[in-house]
Specification:
about 450 residues; mainly alpha; 19 helices; about 5% strand; globular
C-alpha cells in the first residue's frame, strides 16, 4: 500500500509546526491584555516572578506594590469596543519604548491574590526572561505569553505521540482557534487544557494496549493531574476514566480502590497547601466582580436549596438560553469574549470535530457497554460540575441566571465529549485522516488570525 508523506512524519511534529507558527502569530496579533482576565493573570505572574508570594494588607485592601507604568499601560487596553474603536499599530509600537522601574510603584488591590502560582509557571518564567531582555510592560507581556505557548507545545506534543488512536481528534481540539488562543495568552487555562489532553491520551493508550501499565507512566499521569488541579479547580472527573481500564493491566492489587483514593488525595491537595497558606494569613481579601452584589457559594447554595425544583429549572434554562454562546465560545470568541468567529466557521469546525471523533479509532477495538456507561456518566458529571459551579460561585446570591459563563470553560471536557462517539463509524479513511486534520487546522487558524488582525487593528 502506498504511503504518503503525511503518514511518514508523526502527527505530533505537524502539531508543533502549526501550533508554533500560528501560536506566535496570536501572541502578537491578540491585543495586549485582551484575553479574559489576562490583566489579572499578568499581574499575578509578575508578582510571582518577582518574589511576591505573600500579599500585604493596607487600608483594608489586599495586594502588593506594582510599577505604575505597568498599571498605566495595562489600563490603556481595558474595555476597548472594537466595533467603534480599533488599535493603532503605530501607537502600539511606540509603547515598546516605555521602561518601568521596580522602585516606582503603587499599591495594587489584587482580588485574585489567593490564586496559586503553579498554573502560572510557564508565564512566570517568561516574565522573568522578558524582564532580563527589556523592562517594558508590553515586551514582558509578550514573553509571558510565548512561554505559556511553549509549555503547551511540549505537553500536547507528548499527548499526541503516546496515544495510538484519537491523534487527529486531539490535534484538532488542541489547535482549535480558542484552544490555541488561550495557550498563546497569560492564563492558567494553558496548563489546565494541556494536562487534560495528556490525561486523555494516557487513558486511550492504556485502554488499547495489552501489556501492563508501567509505574513510570502512571506517575506521569498523576503528575499531570496534580498540575491540572493546581492550575484550575472544577475539572475533577477526567482521571476517573481509568476505572474503565481492566484491573489486570495495573501492577498492584485492588487497583480501582487505590486509584480512587489517590485521585481524591490529589484533588484535596490545593485546599491543604496553597489555600491553607493563604487562609493562615487571616486576610479577608478582595471581592470578585462587582462590589454591589453579594458573592458567596455557601449562601448561594443555601438560598437555592430552599426551592430545589426552581434551581433545577434555572440550570436547564441557562443551558437552553446560553448553550449556543457556550459552543461558540469553546471554538472561538475573542477580545474579552465580545468578538466571536463568524458562525459559519464555528459550525463547520464543530461538524468536523464530531466527524473525526466518529472515525478516528481502531476497528479492532470495541468499547463494552459498561465502559460506555462509565464514560458517559463522567461526562455528565463534568458538565454538571461546571454548570452548577458557575451558578453558585460567579453568580450573585439568589441570581437565576449564570453570570459570566464562557465557552472556554468547557474546553477541558471537549475530548471527553468527543470520546462518546469513539468507534461509532468504521474507519475506512485511516491513511487520509492526518492530511484532513492538518489541512483543517491550517485553514481555520489562518482564517482566525486574519479575522483577529482585521477586527482589532488599523494601520500597517
Amino acid at each position: 500500500m502506498k504511503e504518503y508523506f503525511w503518514n511518514k512524519i508523526p502527527l505530533e511534529y505537524f502539531f508543533v509546526v502549526i501550533a508554533l507558527f500560528f501560536g506566535m502569530r496570536m501572541v502578537f496579533v491578540n491585543p495586549p491584555w485582551q484575553t479574559n482576565d489576562e490583566d489579572r493573570h499578568f499581574y499575578n505572574s509578575w508578582y510571582y516572578a518577582n518574589g511576591y508570594f505573600e500579599p500585604e494588607s493596607r487600608d483594608k485592601k489586599i495586594g502588593n506594590p506594582l510599577p505604575q507604568k505597568i498599571i498605566r499601560q495595562v489600563d490603556r487596553f481595558q474595555g476597548i469596543s472594537f466595533k467603534d474603536n480599533k488599535i493603532d499599530k503605530e501607537m502600539l509600537d511606540s509603547l515598546k519604548n516605555i521602561l518601568y522601574e521596580k522602585t516606582d510603584t503603587v499599591f495594587y488591590n489584587n482580588p485574585n491574590y489567593s490564586t496559586n502560582p503553579i498554573g502560572y509557571l510557564p508565564n512566570i518564567i517568561g516574565v522573568k526572561f522578558g524582564e532580563l531582555y527589556k523592562k517594558n510592560p508590553l515586551v514582558v507581556h509578550w514573553w509571558g505569553r510565548a512561554f505559556g505557548l511553549f509549555a503547551y507545545l511540549v505537553i500536547v506534543f507528548y499527548a499526541i505521540r503516546i496515544t495510538p488512536v484519537f491523534k487527529n481528534v486531539l490535534l484538532l481540539v488542541a489547535l482549535s482557534p480558542m484552544s490555541l488562543y488561550q495557550a498563546s495568552s497569560i492564563t492558567y487555562d494553558t496548563l489546565c487544557n494541556a494536562t487534560t489532553f495528556l490525561m486523555i491520551a494516557f487513558f486511550i493508550k492504556w485502554l488499547l494496549q495489552k501489556e501492563k501499565i508501567s509505574n513510570r507512566e502512571l506517575g506521569l499521569f498523576c503528575l499531570a493531574f496534580f498540575i491540572h488541579i493546581f492550575s484550575k479547580p472544577g475539572y475533577y472527573f477526567t482521571p476517573f476514566l481509568l476505572l474503565m481500564i481492566p484491573s489486570e493491566k495495573f501492577s498492584f492489587s485492588y487497583s480501582k480502590f487505590k486509584l480512587i483514593g489517590l485521585f481524591v488525595v490529589i484533588i484535596m491537595l490545593p485546599k491543604f497547601t496553597w489555600a491553607a497558606y493563604i487562609n493562615s494569613l487571616h486576610f479577608e481579601g478582595g471581592k470578585p466582580l462587582q462590589n454591589d452584589f453579594l458573592f458567596s457559594p455557601s449562601q448561594n447554595l443555601a438560598y437555592h436549596l430552599k426551592n430545589i425544583p426552581e434551581m433545577i429549572a434555572d440550570l436547564f434554562g441557562n443551558v437552553l438560553w446560553q448553550g449556543k454562546n457556550w459552543i461558540i465560545g469553546a471554538i472561538g470568541r475573542f477580545g474579552y469574549s465580545y468578538t466571536p468567529l463568524p458562525g459559519g466557521l464555528v459550525f463547520s469546525y464543530v461538524l468536523i470535530l464530531l466527524g473525526m471523533a466518529s472515525i478516528d479509532h481502531d476497528n479492532n477495538f470495541k468499547l463494552t457497554r459498561m465502559q460506555r456507561v462509565v464514560s458517559f456518566s463522567l461526562l455528565l458529571a463534568s458538565l454538571a460540575t461546571i454548570i452548577v459551579g458557575l451558578y453558585l460561585t460567579i453568580s450573585p446570591v439568589g441570581a437565576r441566571e449564570i453570570f459570566g459563563a464562557q465557552g472556554r470553560y468547557f474546553i477541558p471536557i471537549i475530548p471527553l465529549l468527543l470520546f462518546q462517539l469513539f468507534g461509532t463509524i468504521p474507519n475506512k479513511l485511516k491513511k487520509y485522516l492526518p492530511l484532513i486534520s492538518i489541512l483543517v487546522s491550517i485553514i481555520f487558524l489562518y482564517k482566525t488570525v486574519s479575522f483577529m488582525n482585521e477586527t482589532f487593528y488599523f494601520g500597517n
